[in-house]
Amino acid sequence: MSKNLRWIGFVFVILYFLSSPCGVFAIDDFRQAFPIVEPDPGHTKLRLSSEGLEAIRRITNPIAAVAVIGPYRSGKSFTLNQLLSLSCYEGFGVGHMRDTKTKGIWVWGTPVEMDINGVKTSVFYLDTEGFESVGKSNVYDDRIFALATVLSSVLIYNLPETIREADISRLSFAVELAEEFYGRVEGQDVAFEPAKLLWLIQRDFLQGKSVKEMVDEALRHVPNANGDKNIDQVNQIRDSLAIMGDNSTAFSLPQPHLQRTKLCDLKDEELDQSYVRKREQLKEVVKSVIRPKIVQGKSLNGKEFVAFLEKILEALNKGEIPSTGSLVEIFNKKILEKCLKIYEDSMTKVTLPISEESLQSIHEASRTESLKSFDEQHFGRHHAKKSVEALDEDIAKMFKNFVMANQYQSSKLCEELYTLCEDKMDQLQVLRLPSMAKFNAGFLQCNQSFEKVCVGPSKTTYEQRMVKMMEKSKSLFIKEYNHKLFNWLVAFSLVMVIVGRFVIKFILLEIGAWILFIFLETYTRMFWSPESLYYNPVWHGIVATWETLVYSPILDLDRWAIQIGFMASILLIYWRCFRRRKHGSHSLLPLYANNSKVRDRSE
């Protein structure tokens, strides 16, 4: 019984787990801090945390994010609680030990609803793990900083006392992002709008230089007479940050109380009133610069923001060191696919095969159109060159496929035409009535058809094969032509002798047939071989007459030989049997005399 109860309880827990959104237990109270990004076990890369993502994913309004970054133990979590008007026990966890309290990136689960330029916006506040804490690599800090820079609409750079050289160096990623993404042509959608950089200096005293003077001084060039590469690099960052001046502001906060370890237990009345006043001013400054997060020209709701976070995290974890290049590749990935599709669609419209020159011309036009489209849409300045090279490589690979397809289709088409011509030449070799005119007409028609229809890279090869095949066929036909014609004429003369003598008894027909037979037989014996006959003018006349009778554009005797022979036989039978019976022996033709009359005369 107890086992059954345990199984029922286990099944109930599983069903409850599966019914919870995103595969986790449903969160009833979002008025707390949740992790959205956590370190991996090696503390070098980042991974997503489902609890915090659920808190963000449920939001349907446009989202803005305020992130606080800075060294560990610099009061970032306390500052965020102050901005949210929360105590340490309600809001982000605040630690007083040497190790960092916050791991990864945390979000306050309940956004602050604001009306920004008439748009209802949900503002999330993000707490980040501090820099330079014990047991972490610099690469991990860079990933945290990079992710906060990309996600946030307002980036609060929380620094104690003053601005150090290392603090400026850490902004190198923000500078690279500015150079890659924020310098787009006006009127085009940016990959994501830059976060407003807020220098927040927390110090014990406010006398002396103003915070703006401190920032200006920190961003001033450092002399580098010895050519130190590190100083040159930091000076370049200073130059870029100075250019980004319109996108940054500075603010200072005095210390809220001398006893810092007791800050969480003190109420506003017990804090330094100058701090309270400045804190309220800071809230207004932050509110004034908050804008919805814009990615590729549109604001993001909760689900879109989470998808954006996943994409950025994938890019930052891609290499050993996070880089803007990996971000550029991620943002340009879909654009590359779209531009490659433009090239593919343009090339697919072409009906293969076509000539190599035409294919190359269409390729160049399609490639130019694709690269132009990428140039109008791509993200990044310097690192975009790699994306352009990648697109060009993909286009080159696709073009090779089209070249191979064109070669295959060209070979297939030309082979079909070659085979048809070869069959045609074979048919002309075995004509029932040999005709040079008909052979030449078929030869010309086949050659013209091949030249007109066969196109593409295989045309040259098949043209050479066609020339050899046609020359061979013509040579063979000419060789057999005279011999076949001679045999035909000999047989024809003998047939006409029989027809003239015994069938129609037409004397002139018989005489003409005997003359032709005698000429053919005696001439070849007088001049030793039939070949000598073929150069005789009389033979040429016979050939011309034969060609005129056998083939013309109007009548092809070879095609109609059987039908014509059949009709002639019918007419001959009719004339021999019926017409003579009807009209008697009277005829205009010189026919042989009747045998009975010959006997009467002899008698």
Automatic annotation (TrEMBL):
Signal peptide start and end residues: 1-26
Ranges for domain GB1/RHD3-type G: 60-180
Pfam family, one: GBP
GO molecular function per UniProt: GTP binding; GTPase activity
SUPFAM superfamilies: Interferon-induced guanylate-binding protein 1 (GBP1), C-terminal domain, P-loop containing nucleoside triphosphate hydrolases
Gene3D superfamilies assigned: Guanylate-binding protein, C-terminal domain (1.20.1000.10), P-loop containing nucleotide triphosphate hydrolases (3.40.50.300)
Record-annotated membrane-spanning stretches: 485-504, 511-528, 560-578
Record keywords: GTP-binding, Hydrolase, Membrane, Nucleotide-binding, Signal, Transmembrane, Transmembrane helix
Similarity remark: Belongs to the TRAFAC class dynamin-like GTPase superfamily. GB1/RHD3 GTPase family.
Name of the protein in its database record: Guanylate-binding protein
